[in-house]
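Dear colleague,

Thank you for sharing your sequence with our group. We've completed the structure prediction you requested, and as agreed, I am returning the results in plain text so they can be pasted directly into your records. Please verify that the sequence below matches your submission; if there's any discrepancy, let me know and we will rerun it promptly.
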Amino acid sequence: MTRLGFLGSLAIALSLAVSAPAEAGSGQGLCSHKLTKMIPGRKNGATGGNSVVQSVMNLSGHERDSVLERELLAGNMPGFLRDLVPVTINGAVNGHALEITICVTPDYLAVGDDSDFVRVPLGMAAAARVADHLGFILPTPRMVDLIYDQAEVQLPPEPMAPGAAMTTTSYFMRHDRTVDNQAGPYGLHPVALIAGIKKDLVLSERLRKQPGRVAIYGWHRSGGNPIQPLSLVHGAEYADYSHGIRLVSRIAFINGRPVALDKVMQDEDIARIVTGEEGPMRNVRNLLATLYR
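Please find the predicted structure tokens below.
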């Protein structure tokens, strides 16, 4: 994409503000259920979360991811994940204020229903494929920071002992129960937004330079400092109990009007506001696709 520059960036915001139709919504404000229309409805008789996880108890890596991915793409996830939550990003371009709203899942990807669900980690390829096929992207580190800052419920991290067992199914199931116990006093779910319970799989331009890796970031302590700085140390199939998959809608809003988030992320002037990186993030959907080919 050629450089839009300030005039192009401002044109996006102003054209949206004066000409685009307002999002109709359905009690959800900007982040309406329309943004989740690509997520299939959960089928009657779909397997509960604990049973799904029991079925992969002795699996790992690609084999486990394949089962979990199949369940998620079939819509076997709790209904509250379809209630997207707005996260506001404020910035300015040459003195002109912009308010960018992204719409995110209130919790991390889980299999099951509202009363029987388990949060599941995935390798980078499976996470990217699920996000892309359901109409979402993965967050950037900047988005992860803002999600934590604006979360209604900020739970303290509960790390488990490191070691070879970190990647096992039993480990992430144990950690999920820990999170549920932490969340219990808050009457979850549903919840406006919960954070502090996982590291995020994230998008970064570094993934283009270091293919075959998983990018992880976050797990914020009280006060907002992340345990995990941006890291691409592990191979793409690596997933442990501390990893979570937060989805971000491909539709965002500038000053209340809809815009394709990937267009914002590749704009020379606006991109940094939502990515935190020095330059634009070009062709986000292509980046996602390269992670799972």
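Summary note from our side: The first helix runs from residue 5 to 19.

Kind regards,
the structure core
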